[in-house]
Structures are given as C-alpha cells and as structure tokens.
Design brief:
2 domains; Rossmann fold; alpha/beta; about 500 residues; 17 helices; 8-stranded mixed beta sheet; Nucleotidyltransferase, domain 5
Amino acid sequence: MDWTRQHEQKRLRILEMISRKAQPFEDLSDEAARARRAAPLLEWCRTYLPHYFDVPFASFHQRMVDAVGEPGMLSFVCAFRGAGKSVLLTLARPLHRALRDGVPYFIYGSQVQKLAAQNMDYVRLELEYNPRIGGDYAEPQVAGPQAEWTVQATGHRGPTKFEAFGIGMSPRGRRHGEHRPTEFVGDDLEDAELARNPEREKNLWDWLMDEVVPAMEPDLFAFTVLGTTFGPHCMMERARRLAQRRDGGGRPLARIFVQKVTDGGRSVWPERFGDETLSRIRATIGLRNWLRNYALEPEDPTRPFQAKWMGSYRPEEVDVRALDVVAFLDPAVSQSASGCPRALVAVGADRASGIRYVLEAWIERGTPMEMIGKLFEFNRRFRPRVIGIETNGGYALIRPLLAVYEERRRERLPVRYVNHTRPKDLRIEMLCSQFESGRWLFRQNPSPGVKMLQEQFLSYPDGYVDGPDAAAGCDELLPAAFALAGSDAGYMSLQRRTDFGCL
C-alpha cells in the first residue's frame, strides 16, 4: 500500500515536530518515568505528545474523553472543526491504551482501507520515533505492513494488533490470538457527498451495525466513532436517535457527545479560537458552512427557517435613524442553569420596503439587574419607538423593578407591556414567509447574541426559542403596512419543541 502524497507530507511534518518539540526527558529515573506513565490522559498527552498539544485543554476535552470507552457502549463524538477530537481520540487515546493497558486488538474504520491505515499510521509514528515514549516504555517493538501491524510494549503479555478496514470490508471472524477485536475507532467515515446519498448513508450505518459491532468482543468492546452533522439522515443524526432508545434494563443503546464551538455566543476554547477569530471564520465560510462545521446544526430542508433565507447587511450602509426601530424582551422567569434564557431583540424596519434589519440581540441567562441594564443600553444605542415586554406567566413582576431603575437613572423607557393571546409557535411561524422572501437581514460579523438568534431560528422548533419569540414580538410592534402580503394566513404548529438542555 502506497501512502498518498498528502499523507507523506504530513508524516514529514510530524517527524520534524517530534524532533523539535518532543526531546528526551531530562529525568530518566524509574520513579520519574512511573509518575509520567501514571498521569491521567490529558496530562499524559501534554507530557508525551507536546508537538500536538501545545495549547491548554478546554473543559470540554475532559468531558469528551469521559464520553467514550464505556464497555459495550456505542459512543459517537460530534465536535466542531478544530476541536482536537481526531488527534485526541484516534491518536492519543489508542496510543495511551496500547502502552498502558495492553489492549490486545484495535480495528480502525474509514471510507476506504487506505484512509483507516493512514489514521493508524499516526499512532505508529509515535511508537517508532517519539524519544519520550521510547525512553519511558523501553522502545516498543513495531512489526507488520501498513494496514495490519502489531506493537509489543514491555510489561504486556502479548502484542497489541492494529488493523484497518474500509466501509464494506467485514471484520467478522477476525482474531488476534484468542482475542476478537477489542476497540473500534472510526473516523473519516462520512463526507458531504456521501451524506447526500440516502443509499450510501444506509450502507454505512448497516456496515457499522451488521459487520463491525457483531465482530467485537461482546460486552467488553469499546466503540468510538467521530463525525459531524450533514443532514437529517446522516450518521450522527441516526446515532442521536439510537441514543434515545433504551434496552430492557434501561441502559441507553448508544451515547452521543456533541460540542459546539460556542456556548451562549462565546468560544468554548478561547485559547485556540478567540471570539474575533470565530467571527472571521464565520464571515469567510458563510452561515451554511458555519452551521455544519462549527454550530453542528444539520442541514434539514424540512425545517421552517433555512440559512439561505437569512440575508446580511453592512452596518455602515444602513442609517438606523431612518428606520422604524422597535425592541422586544422575553424576560424568562427561570434563573436555573438549564432554564430558558432571557432574550432582548432590536429590529429596525425600512418604511418603504418593510425590510427588517436585526440590529442587536441579547440572549443569556443573566440576572434581573443585567436584564434591566440591557434595556437601558438598547434604549440609548437604538432609540426604539417602543420596547415591548412580555407579561405572560407572571412576567409583569418586572414592572416594579423597572420603575425603581427608571427613577434611579432619571430615564424613562418607551415600554409597552404585552400579554400575548396567540401561541408562541404560531407567532414565530408567522415569520416564515417573511424570511423566505428575504425580508429579514442580519448584520455581517454579528454579535454573539445575534449569532445565537440565528442558530435558534435554524434549529426551530427544537431547542430554545426565546430569541425567535422576541423577534416575533418586534414584528408585531411594527405597523401592519410593513407586513408581507399574505402573512396573516393561518399556520399549523409544526411540532412540539424539545429543549436539549443536556447538550
């Protein structure tokens, strides 16, 4: 098997990084080596693989590691592009498991066998050329061709085998001595082209369920598959549905770990991806690619709001003073960490065309005082004609609090308290035709709050909908003449929404 030119270039770069960053340890005593070998995985990575892990880990990395490896559990990991999932779970973890635990038999899977073998080769490079591993693990002995090789580490009874498989190749009946495959690592199994083909998607899933899982050591195997979101029938969406099912004992049939690049509009790994960097990436690749690769929202043509309907505008080309500006607040009484966030949205409408420009959004689980502060901030920045505040469900309790702050600041807000009589889903879905006709525009390089608003629209009717509800409140405050013709047509609620507070 010949490596691709791209892989050969990567091998050379890795070898250069090893020689430059993974110099032998100064303290070569047995005691120091034992302490280094016993370190937890993330610390072990920083110790033995500094050429890969030169940025501090984020908190989600430990959760990612903890989400895989449960015996007999199918584990699927879906994380944003650049999260380090491949190097952590297809390189570092198998390397650590082979050296420390002597796992007898790994099988790797990918679209074709060569890709799987290349993923295994990154492990082999460390075993053969990393002086830190060679020093502390007594030069592990590697033997065999590229797609099927073994490593013998000192202190283990027998060698560990690594074998590569492509989709369609059956690992059934494979053994390494008395061992059936013990761990499966799947990466690069799917791409956008495959995901657009329902038959190929089915073949991939059937291969995993009909060939890979039955080939492994029952109840003891570890199964780890990495991927991203492509659409409603992609591998990760199938895994999500499987994870919602239970066996007779109440145990989930699978586990799925999902990590988006932002939480509450802020980067979850600022040491590597600062907020400004993410804004630039989003502006460069476009909303559709951002959602797939970083926000992990599967492209679903059946959803009521589509990314291609969300136009953009350059703030310097819009005179906010010429717009009819309104704002709306959904105060959200819950202060729980898993409760609905508060949402404040400001929208300016062009009096001639009726185009809605989303000026700003604040969607957070802030304190009541932070929420009041945002009301005053929006009022100073945008001078809205009216600020609507939802009073349903006891939200009118905000009235006395706001009155105290108005008196203290000597500033009156143009507040109108609104008691909605129409269901929330109906109010939001009334915006669909406006979005489809391109009447809602979002500023280029949007703020974290506006990004969150877009993502809530695109995931609707699932997840939190407080931002879209506040946007719908803004629309109701605009003159009827601004509405799109025919927008008063009746809507049928699409489905009951589900709050994925656990993700």
